[in-house]
Amino acid sequence: xxRRDVEFKAAxxxxxxxxxxxxxxxxxxxxxPDDVKAYxxxxxxxxxxxxxxxxxxxxxxxxxxxxxMDVPADNVALTFGGDxxxxxxxxxxxxxxxxxxxxxxxxxxxxxxxxxxxxxxDFVILGEEYSPSPDDFKxxxxxxxxxxxxxxPTGNLIDLDVLREALETGAxxxxxxxYYPFARVSVWDAFKDYPNLMVGRSLSKSMLAxxxxxxxxxxxxxxxxxxxxxxAPYNLTHLHLTLFREYGVIKPHLNxxxxxxxAERERIFRFLRDVGLNPFxxxxxxxxxxxxxxxDLYNFLTDFGVRIRDVSGLPGLSNHxxxxxxxxxxxxxxxxGVRRFLGL
Length: 344
Hints:
Elements: E1 21-22, H1 34-45, H2 55-69, E2 76-79, H3 81-93, E3 100-104, H4 109-116, E4 121-125, E5 144-148, H5 160-168, E6 172-176, H6 187-191, E7 197-202, H7 204-208, E8 214-218, H8 220-229, H9 238-245, H10 247-274, E9 286-290, H11 294-304, E10 306-307, E11 309-310, E12 320-324, H12 328-342
Parallel strand pairs: 1-10, 3-4, 3-5, 5-6, 6-7
Antiparallel strand pairs: 2-8, 7-8, 9-12, 11-12
């Protein structure tokens, strides 16, 4: 009855133990102020909840959002979270007659969507620098080349020369920029004139994880294909469209949260380096680090009330852990737990 090429496992789960510091899912530690939520709730009440969002509404909201992003509306598609941007890349350029490449370790949903769309995909495990080489994709006949910048869970950026060579192959080049606010750089700025560049972004990491909002930046041809495959506008609810329309109200709060996270990220990095836990430089809202005692440390921190992510099961990441940057007081609890574990 079910597909034989898929190993159906338990649904995605996270620890349910009580915690004092939740640093495991790369969420923002900051929420919108109550008065902003109240304003947005009033705007949502204006919609007819018994009616589907109409195409004209989607078009109007997209125009408004595009102005806030300072890009033409023809270069934007609105999506149900950042994950839908990844799925969209496989929907428009993948499939059984295509061929794709995914560089690992990276966000596991790339492997999931490659399988779900039946796309023959090469999974290339990178070396310790976690940086792809043109030799990994040139002359391989790929129709879809994927990158993540900053990469999750390593935190590093794509080399722009490597990206340029990927674009020159003529394949659709998808770059997941879910964490770009914390890097303050975007490949879109440098390569938006390439019609085969497709950038996926999320609003989850900078504050709105609970709302599941994302968007695609690409050429009009790719945007039209993305919207066709996602059956826009019915993949988005009135809630999504209200928040996209009011992005100008939301944006200042996102930016302030990002500034604090960046400062705290550097504090965590220095701490991990000073206690000998081998952190990797990060341009995201998390820091990955390596320790031979990763399982013992993970369990100790869990009992101490600190949730972090064990990423040692990902390809090429044995003995690695990842900590999300939280509020200063949460980060202090994490650091205190590490000190106690190390006997410092």
